[in-house]
Sequence to fold (223 residues):
Amino acid sequence: MKNMLVFFLLTAAAATASAQNYAEAVKPMSKGDQNSFTIDFTIGNAETIADLWVDYQKDFKAKKPKLDKKANEYFADDAQVDKISSNTIDIYSKVARKSDKGAVLTIWFDLGGAYLSSSRHPDRMAGAREWMSGFEQVIRASFAKEALEAEEAALKDLEKELKGLEKDQQDAAKEVEKLEKELQDARQKVAEMDQAVGTKQQQIMDQKKMVEEAKAKLKKMKR
Fold:
């Protein structure tokens, strides 16, 4: 139980769209352009997600959802979803395979004369989100191992990146140490050169003095 709780906390955001804000848009379906809701799953595979989706709707007394292969659309007749409506509703849906993992589930709720939307039925949205969230939890539980492996793989990638950064850090530290040694040597050389220059300047001053003395002696000898 503890491991499952940790898993839910780690994968809630990554596995699906937000449970409180499903993507809502008017999209084409067999009954025309109607308001829909989308759940984007990033774990699992489209076939299994579709099977679980059919079973989930059956739990709400819907007649077994049928797949219209031509439209690639499921139809669940007379589902009893009390969180959305006290009357039975029809549910249309599509499960689209993604290029990598997961699937995109698009849902249309036919309330009977109108399709569920946040603008027309704001009082029913909390129940609808809760109901869709219930299916998300089914997917999370069904693909818990896969999601955990994905998280572990992501952790390994981060650890690998950390090792790379640590190596770069060590290399940078060695470079700093090398530069500091070069700077220390350069400062030592500057100090030695300062001393050499000072010595040479003193020698020149002494030599100038000797030249002046020699000039003075020569001048006396000429008198």
Observations:
- Residues 4-20 have pLDDT under 50 and may be disordered.
- Residues 2-142 form a domain with the TATA-Binding Protein fold (CATH 3.30.310).
- The helical segments are 2-15, 46-58, 125-142, 144-221.
